[in-house]
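Honest question from a wet-lab person: if I give you the sequences of every part of a complex, can you actually get the arrangement of the whole thing, not just the pieces? Trying it with mine:
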Amino acid sequence: MSESRKEKLEAIDVHVHFGGVKALNGVNLSLQSGDILGLIGPNGAGKTTMVNVLSGFQMPHPGTVKLNGENVSNLSARKMARAGIGRSFQSARLFPKLTVLENLVIPGLGIGLSRRAATSQARDILDWIGYREDPDRQCDSLPYSDERRISIARALALRPSFALLDEPASGMNEQECDRLMQIITRIPQEFGCGVVLIEHNMHVIMGVCHRIHVLDGGKSLAEGTPDEVKKDPKVLRAYLGEQASRPEAVI
Amino acid sequence: MALASSVAPAQEAEPIKIGFATALSGWLAAYDQEPHQAAILKIEEINKAGGLLGRKIEYQVTDTKTDLTLTANVAASLIDWGANMLVVPPDFDYGAPAAFMAQNANLIAISTGASDPKMGVQGVGSNVFSAHSAGQAAGIVMAEYAHDKMNAKTAFMLEDVSLEAHKSSCAGFVAGWENKGGELVGRDSFRMEDTSIAAQITRIKGLASEPDIIFLCSGLPQGASAVRQVRAAGIDTPILAEAGMSGDYWLGGVPNLKDFYVPTLMSISDDPRPEVNKFIEAYKARWGALPTTEFSILGYCTIEQWAAAVEQAQSVETEVVLAVMNQFEDQPTTCGPTSYSDQIHIQVSRPQLIARVENGSFRSVEIFRNQFVPDLKLLLRSSN
Amino acid sequence: MTHFIQVLIDAVAIGSLYALVALAIGLVFGVMRLINFAQGDYITIGAYSLVVPSAAATPALMFGALPWPAMILCVILTVVVLALVTERLAFRPLRNSDLTSLLISSFAVSYFLQSLILMVHGGRPKTVSIGDALSRAVEIFGVRLPGVQLLTMVVALTLLIVLVLFLKKTPIGIQLRAAAEDFQMARLLGVPANRVIAIAFAISGILGGTISLLVIIQTGTLDIRMGLMPTIFAFFATVIGGMGSLPGAVVGGYIMGILSVLLQAYLPAELRPFRDAGVFSIVILILLVRPQGIFAKTAKERV
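Yes, you can. This is the full assembly:
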């Protein structure tokens, strides 16, 4: 279960623009196996674009993405997945007519496990995330928060080197959030991978991240430990106006 | 000058020109090729015997390629060549463009095998004829045969509604059957594309009592499929069909078929008529092989009947020949007695050779002629 | 009552046939968003493989002359190979094209295959008789069950069960289902796209070969366009069942079969020639009420 070799994922001077809008304007970030890096910022700051770049859905132009020193900027999403970048999506995107178990078996088969091994791994992960309900239930009838958990589990079932989680906590109540936080915290020790976490929920971010990278208007605003970022005046200024009306933000 | 003309031999008189707009390629060729060859056989026979009105018959054949537009162009070029008469394809749709051109050029056009009365006065024009029988007549013949020769009183009719040709023969059957006082205990329809006629068969099975005969107006291949399914359902009722289903080659699909009857123009193997057998032998001698379809003989009598009219009229001028042809009453031809009127330019009561399937091939039974004759209304309306 | 049961059996028998074709179309549509109209020509070529390619009016038997296990194997193998070849040559290069291009390419393949048959076998329809033992009917309580109808229903049921087991229990089957639901997501999770699509085509080939045998036993005739009508009905079956849903395709097939037979059995004689118009009118009504189809997917669908 433990990975002794440290892997490294880097984004170097990444620019992305859509038409006239600059979504990312020279952002640098990096993380290693075992890190949990939070990615926060106001709406439109470029968080999802950054994750898209890291996972091959978006090419940086200009800019570079390196995985263990190798330039992977031009790799497609599928090739990035094969290279070890797993991600979950804002909309979960589970296979609706497949069961919970089958959704988790798919990535296992994808990394070359036999059906028995993939099923066994799937059950282990379900157990690990604390999913006690019926694994043979079709995913199109799952409650929202379960969907989120399963989609994270599915990304992890790929045994990625890095798991990029896109707003897993949105729409969850306090109890569900706590459960989610417990899961995310234990990812590095269970799977040995690094985690990039996009979230608006500050409680979750502050609770699980080792480091936080703040984006605003496509530019890096700050990076540091939760405590450092909490007190950073630039961050407070960027957030104060916006976050004042958001009840879940507890800075 | 006077010297030259007085010793002008008969052969140097201006030839009579017959133009053939014929499908030598495309799907229609299968039905046009052999009648065409039979027609040429007749022309050669006439020439050998001294020509028509002492003049040699010259012919020109141009391929219509089973293409509608090309057919019209072919006819136009044959008319330009100076044709005195046009022989056009044996199908209303694919022959009409050529017949139409002939009509407008005031020439007679004869289709060797069109079974649609619209290849005639009320359709393409008053100069246009078909050497074949109307589809309705085939239905009437079988209705009368069933009644007179098979003592049938009740009939079920299974109608292929995909093509006009089949609908006409069913319309004819109904008229002929009712005329004889027969009872139509049921009817159903199916289409060329139907994979299964299970529902129609269920209807037949559901009749209060088994009908004496089943009349099937259909063609190939769907007719063969229907026969197979009817027999597979355990229905052994005699089936009468129309001319579209003659030909041994499809019988492999319904092994051990019995009690299946069709009206035919002739039999290549066992025709009882000496003149027909003479034609078959002459065809084989000329073309090196027996004809494979019964429709070949129609090409032969197309030329035969026009030549006879020209002889009687002592001219090739359209009006005069037309007048003679419009009065044909049982004019003897190798195909059988041929009649036309100024309204009806297709055969409606030509005797048919009834054939029946025995031991995997069609065998001739007897010659039969219908008494009931379709009126214009029936000829020009295909559904009933 | 017996009559109604008879009609119902007729309906289920033809419905089984349509369900099998609909399944083939639905499977390929699921993984590729391609409505493969060439499926009809797969059926036609499977049927023609029973005879020796020639323009003869009475063709000699080719696979049709073999003992029936070998015959079935050869016909099905022929169609599977054909399906895989068309996938590889015609459809794979266009995989990332828009749906219109895919649809046009399936028409092109269909036209090409029909022209090929025309060239090799000639235009004249031919007949071939196989499975004559099945040509008789069994009577049970006054209900007539022709052997071929019984066979069709049994074969359809068997194939359905085998297919369900395949899709549920085997690794490639599960991956195929995932790919049919969300192709992009499946690829991200390591589903081998090429293999999955090839398998879908191979299954459509197995179904096509089976159907061609069933149709020939029933009709005994070979015609270039024999696969057209079942394919059109199957297409409508997938639409009313819900595109992308395999159970929907099967149910849709049975609905089409039942509608077709019921209309033929109960319409008055004058209206029966317009039976197909009736069937399609009812299909339109179904779609007006439920445009997405009966078993429509609730998830966002990339159409």
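Two things worth pointing out. Confidence is low (pLDDT under 50) at residues 1-10 of chain B. DSSP finds twelve helices and twelve strands in chain B.
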